[in-house]
Amino acid sequence: MRKLPLAATLAALLLSATAMAGGDRHQGKAVPPESPQAMLTTPQSSTTEGSVTVEGKRIDYTAVAGTLVLHGRGDKSDVPTVSMFYTAYFKKGVAPGKRPVTFIYNGGPGSSTVWLHMGAFGPRRVVTADHTHTPAAPYPLINNDYSLLDASDLVFIDAPGTGFSRLIANDKDPAKRAKQMAERKKQIYSVDGDGHAFAQFITRFLTRYGRWNSPKYLLGESYGTTRSAVVANDLENEDSVDLNGVVLLSQILNFGLSIDGPQRNPGVDLPYELALPTYAATAYYHHKLPSQPADLPAFLKQVEQYATGEYASALMAGSTLSPARAQAVAEQLHQYTGLPVAYLLKANLRVSGGMFEHELLSQADDSTGRLDTRFSGPSIDPMGKSAEYDPQSSAISSAYVAVFNNYVRKDLKFGQNRTYRLWADIDHWDMTHHGSHHTLNVMPDLAMAMKTNPGLKVMLNSGYYDLATPFYEGQYEMHHLPIPASLQKNISYALYDSGHMIYAHEPSMKKLHDNVAAFIRATDNLK
C-alpha cells in the first residue's frame, strides 16, 4: 500500500538531540547531545498548547510529542526493542475518564502517520490540490475545521522505523550491534511483530497518561486496517482491553482479494470481480463511458450485480467459455469500463489494476492514479502494459513532508537535528501470520475480537476511486467475516467521492469527520 518508495538510513540513530530551549525533552530536562542512546532507551516528550476551531467551535488542547520505549516479551521483558514516536492531543478541561481516546496510524506496511496527521484529523492540515498536482512550496498549513478533536482525544502513532520511531540495537560492539539490528528488523517488520508492538504501545500509553478507563478506539488506514484487526484481537484476548470501536479507512484484510495480486495467483478471479465497480466509477469520473449515467451510486449497484453475476460466471467458465459469450461479456465490460472490446478480449476479460490505470487514458498518453484514480499524469512508458508510478502520490507527497517537518519542530518543539522518516528502511516484511504461510488474511482476527467482545462496533469507510483497496472488496470482506449473523449489525458503512486517502477531497473530508465523530459519540458509553 506504499504511497511512494522513500527510504532513510540508520545514520539517524546516531544524531543527537538538542539542549536548546524548545528542543526535545526527557522528563523535563534537555537531552545531552553526547548521549544519543538516551534518545532511544528513555521516554522523551515535549508539551505545547494550542487551539483549533472545528466546524465553528473552539477547542483548546495540550499537545504532547514524544516517545515511549517498548521491550521484549517473555524472558526478554527488560530488553528495550523500539522507541515509538507519537503525537497526542488532549482537550483541556476534561477529566480523562470522561473523554474518549483514539489511536491513529497509517499503513504501508512501514509508513509513517504523517498522512492522517496532516491531512485528516490533526488540529492543523496541509492544503493540496483536489485532483491535480499540487504546486511546489510554500504549502499552506491551516486550521483543520474537520479535526476529530471535537469527539475524542487523539494519539497519532508512527510505526517502528518510521517518523522518529526507531528500532533499538545498543550493543557496544559494532558487529554485535549490527546482528542485533538485523534481529530487531526480522522480529518487528512482520505482521505479528508489528501488531504486538502497537498493542504494547497502547497499553503503555494508557498507563502513562491514566487512560485505562477511557473509551478506546483504533483508527487505521490501508495496511493500518490490517494492523487494526491484529491489534484489536491482541488487546481483547491478550491484554483484556475491551475496545469501544474500530474505524477502518480503505480496508484490506484478505490480501488474496487484492487486485494487485491476481497476476501472481492464476485461477483466482474474485479480485477482478471486486475491482470492477471501481473501474466503472473511474471511467465515470473521467467521462470514458460510452453512455454517462446520471446517478453514480445507482450505476455502481448495477455494476456490482453484474460483477457477482454474469461476469463471475463467465470467469468461472475458464477455457470452456464460448467465443460468443466472451464477446458478449467484453461488450458489457466496455459499457462499464470504457476499455476497448478488443483490449478486453486480448486480456482474457481479466484486467489488473495496473493495466487499467495505464489503459483508460492511454489515448492521451496518461495514466490514472492508483490510490486515487481521479488523479492522472503522463505515462512513464506509453507503450507499456501497466502504470509505473502513482500520479496521486507524486501530486501531494511533497506538501505533506515539507509541512510536517516544519510543524513538528516549530509548533510541537520536537525533532530538532533528527531525521523524520516517511518510510521505514524495510528489506523484507514477513507476511506470515500465527506461523501460517498462506496468503495473509486477518478477517479471523477481527472476527475473534468481535466475538469475544460482542459490544465492539466497527465502521468501514471507503472511497469510490480507490484502486489500492477497492470499496467493493472491503464490503465483501465484512459480509464474509466468520461471525454470527447477530454481530453484522455492529458494522456500519460509508462511501465517499474520493480515493484511498478519503480526506484528499475536502467535501469527503467533512463527511468523513462527521461520520466518524457520530460513530464515536454513539459508542463511547459516556451518556
Would you kindly provide a written description of the structure presented here, covering whatever features stand out?
This protein is α/β, with parallel strands linked by helices. It folds into two domains: 10-256 and 395-523, Rossmann fold (3-Layer(aba) Sandwich), CATH 3.40.50.1820; 266-392, no CATH class. 35% of the residues lie in helices and 18% in strands. It contains 14 helices and 16 strands. It has helices spanning 36-41, 114-121, 174-188, 191-208, 223-238, 270-285, 296-317, 323-337, 341-346, 353-359, 391-410, 443-452, 471-479, 506-523, and strands at residues 25-26, 29-30, 44-54, 57-71, 80-91, 101-105, 124-126, 141-143, 153-157, 166-167, 216-222, 245-251, 366-368, 376-378, 457-463, 491-496. Strands 3, 4, 5, 6, 9, 10, 11, 12, 15 and 16 form a ten-stranded mixed sheet that branches. Strands 1-2 form a two-stranded antiparallel ribbon. A two-stranded antiparallel ribbon has the order 7-8. Helix 2 crosses helix 11, helix 4 packs across helix 5 and helix 5 (223-238) runs parallel beside helix 12. The two termini are 38 Å apart.
